[in-house]
Structures
1.
Amino acid sequence: MPDVTVTRRLQFNAAHRVHNPALSDEENSRLFGKCNNPNWHGHNYTLDVSVHGPVDQRTGYVVDLAVLKRVVEERVVDKIDHRNFNLDVDFMRGVIPTSENIIVAIWRELAPAIQPGRLARLVLWETPNNYVEYTGE
Ligand code: NI
């Protein structure tokens, strides 16, 4: 059977402060700009979850996207939507909540739960102009 990559898009919003406690306030402000605002700020994030695998002969699917959506909601989105990355999210504890660190943390939560197929790629949009992608390497 041919292998195909399928993608489900999900949206959530969350607050954060990008801040490294090991650096001075001036350095944090210079490095992180608006995202260093002491009283938090939010983003409307978009997350694309791609799964790669063989097309099942019986269903014609790689994976049922409704099932994939439920798994992503349970493992990730329900834990971060309308939350604060710095304060509320167990799998982000002690991590500076840049998009880079968020996407790696989401991968670790999600990859073991994906089947059939395998998690092939995540794309996380923080704004309509900025996104990061990760393939688990
Ligand atoms: Ni920000």
2.
Amino acid sequence: MNLFDLKGKVAVITGGNGGIGLGMARGIASCGASIIIAGRDEQKAATALAALHEMGANASFIVADVTKKAECEALIAQTVAKHGHADILVNNAGTSVRKMPQDLSEEEWHHVLDTNLTSAFLCSQAAYPVMVKAGGGKMINIGSMMSLLGAPFGAAYASSKGGIVQMSRAMATAWAKDNIQVNAVLPGWIDTELTKGARRQVQGLQDSVEKRTPQGRWGVPDDMAGVAAFLASSASDFVTGTAIPVDGGFSIAM
Ligand code: NDP
């Protein structure tokens, strides 16, 4: 018995063309699944595909802006047209606008909520009938430490990431009868393009994260590979509605 065997399965990973999404794509690909990475930046996708192909993965890219319902639907439809099914969905695409609540425009609020939360709702809704038809599936939604904690500059981001946890729980209860497991992953501070921006904005962030994290370092995208393999595979068949921190202990330290 190989609990992590994903041969014959197909995984769609939004924002899989870089950062955490690519780390998760690598984890799922290492178990044998075919990979579709989705995003807007084709150049970044070419580099990501090269890395996936280098490890022997069957991987391709579909252009999609996941803030748009029609593009979420097209992403799943194109995946099914190519592979016949879509068994694993990782809702990873995300963004941040770091501003005090009083300075955040309505447009910025909607941009963050649309990218981080509504996109996950729309892609999950599009994937649901496909997974039902296949007899089950796995959905993995990416939250954050700000699913748990507040920060002065995080009104929109924390709202979206808190929403990811509650949406995962709601969908887990709704779709358990369809053998679809829905879980959230809460990354700690991971070295990606997103947090390079944060480190430019916040002086001392590099050091303060290292000090606050019991494991004493920033995460790297490949730290997300194991949890992705677990939640995508039959190893997690009785795990649903959870929110798993992958944070070097950040969330449990005083
Ligand atoms: P990156 O900026 O490296 O990756 C974000 C990805 O999302 C990009 O690949 C981008 O692709 C994609 N994306 C953004 N907007 C859209 C859109 N409208 N349509 C399609 N794709 C989109 O950041 P991370 O890897 O750090 O972030 C990945 C996820 O992890 C996010 O949800 C983030 O909130 C979360 N997270 C990150 C943490 C960290 O420390 N890095 C900590 C906790 C959570 P493209 O540009 O091609 O559209």
